[in-house]
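Is heme C placement plausible here? Inputs below.
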Amino acid sequence: MIKKILLGILIGLFVVAGAFVTYILLSWDKIYDVPYPDLQVTADSTVIARGKYLVHGPAHCSNCHVSSFADMVSADQGKVTPLKGGAPFPLGPLGTMYIPNLTPDSNTGTGRYTDGQLFRMMRHVVKPDGTAALSVLMPFWNMADEDLVAVVSYLRSMEPVENQVKKSEWSFMGKAIRVFASSFHPVENPTPPSYAPPMAATVERGEYLARYVANCVGCHTRRDPMTFEALSPEYSGGFEFEPFPEFHKYIGEDPELWARSPNITPHPNSALSKFKTVEEWKARFRQGRIIKISPMHWGPFSRMTDQDLEALYIYLNSLEPVENDVTETVFKK
Ligand code: HEC
Ligand code: HEC
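Reply from A.M.:
I modeled the complex. Tokens:
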């Protein structure tokens, strides 16, 4: 009798585990039915120039959509490298993404996609193939219509470069996380404005940049390393970045060094409070990268206009101070 009950329980467990595995394998690359935003690209040179500023400056697409470690370094130093993709973007135990080619090449790049597919990617984090991307990396859903149009119009104006990029690889754990974590689900109901707050030193402009363009909030909030859900108040820092050993070796740094984002709320011991004046703040950004292994996109941010840097300073200083003394931004586990 007992043997039979145990056998029954065992069979039951196998059935549940089998159903779980089947469910993950069938739904991790789900195709989402999300509408295409009703926006049109233009060949207007003022709009394209605005897009270029965003892509190589605050929105820092240029620092990620690179082909190699050499490109990563030169893009960060300010050289305009073709956004032809191909570089790996490791996600630890979840797998490795490969950076897509954003040039308008018709075999391997965005020439394969309609404008609608590109707008939808930015507004809903749904890739052209209909699967979801990782929203904390590209939080552009509330970018204003005019900025979205500017970015996609600029992408369309770039020189096409043929470069076939590998498909991203996900471990079973990565697939399971994709099914359950909201960071891997589309943003269904964004609330974007038609126009961006004018480029001026205002709290409104600073918040727009920090949340939906430059992603200060994505990195300066402590997050779960698997699901990327926020674990601390926004902007209070503490997000830990796993080393990328091959890249660290390439730039001659210790492959075991981790980075941690500091607190950028106006608490007396935060990294923000080190900057007593907006002039000191701007000077720090103009200086660019100091810590070679830092994941922060110092190069593109160093190219922001004075007004945009001032807006960020004013906005961050308007936040509620949160106590979180992040002393070590580079460390070993
Ligand atoms: C932090 C790095 C990062 C930044 C910044 C970034 N991207 Fe991406 N992008 C990625 C990764 C990684 C993928 C692939 C995601 C995946 O496979 O799930 C991707 C995918 C895409 C895709 C889908 C392409 C395809 O072929 O599937 C588009 C379009 C795109 N990004 C545009 C942009 C634009 C435009 C910007 C700037 C406004 C930008 N990205 C900024 C990392 C980044
Ligand atoms: C990809 C992640 C990432 C993004 C995006 C990011 N940061 Fe950082 N930031 C870090 C990390 C990690 C550090 C610590 C290492 C360093 O100083 O470079 C840091 C450091 C800083 C510092 C301290 C610099 C110093 O010299 O002490 C400030 C200030 C800062 N970030 C502000 C910002 C602002 C403002 C934004 C948005 C415009 C932003 N960060 C976007 C990850 C990021």
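Short version: Residues 13 and 19 are 10 Å apart (CA to CA).
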